[in-house]
Amino acid sequence: MANKEAAFKQIYEANSKKIFHLCYGYTGDDDAANDLLQETFLKVWQNLEKFRNQAMISTWIYRIAVNTCLTYLRSEKRQAKDELTPQIAETKREELSDKNEQVALLYKSISKLEESERIIITMVLDEVPYPEIAEISGISEGNLRVKIYRIKQKLTELYNQYERL
């Protein structure tokens, strides 16, 4: 048992930031992202013995996180949060530095992408290697590169729209 705990701790430390970013990309909400992060790693803990090393463990964890996020969105019938009232949004904007504001705009833009696009671009931002992204998303590496290019174009358009507001 102690061995499992040590292995789990190492896995959590190596992957939790990336998984949080993925969850945040789906929800746009710190609390919901933290809940989904915890739920993901609870499933990792419960199924650690079942992991067969056929893929990288980070790939396996991403799949669990993606499924956890999709289940959350379906069950809650939620979309990424952009229902902030203008007053709250303005107050929030004043609190953020320019860089944080750019990051917030980026995540807001990401939240407008389709689910599959959100998964892919979040992994790109987390510097997951393309072969691993291809395996997680189930598409060839060549198609992945084309898809990433298109997602970046779409994201740039969305970001620029927000920046003009």
UniProtKB/TrEMBL annotation:
Residues 11-78 form the RNA polymerase sigma-70 region domain. This is RNA polymerase sigma-70 factor (ECF subfamily). The keyword DNA-binding does not apply. It comes from the Bacteria. NCBIfam families: sigma70-ECF. The keyword Transcription applies. It holds the Pfam family Sigma70_r2. Keywords: Sigma factor, Transcription, Transcription regulation. Residues 106-155 form the RNA polymerase sigma factor 70 region 4 type domain. Belongs to the sigma-70 factor family. ECF subfamily.
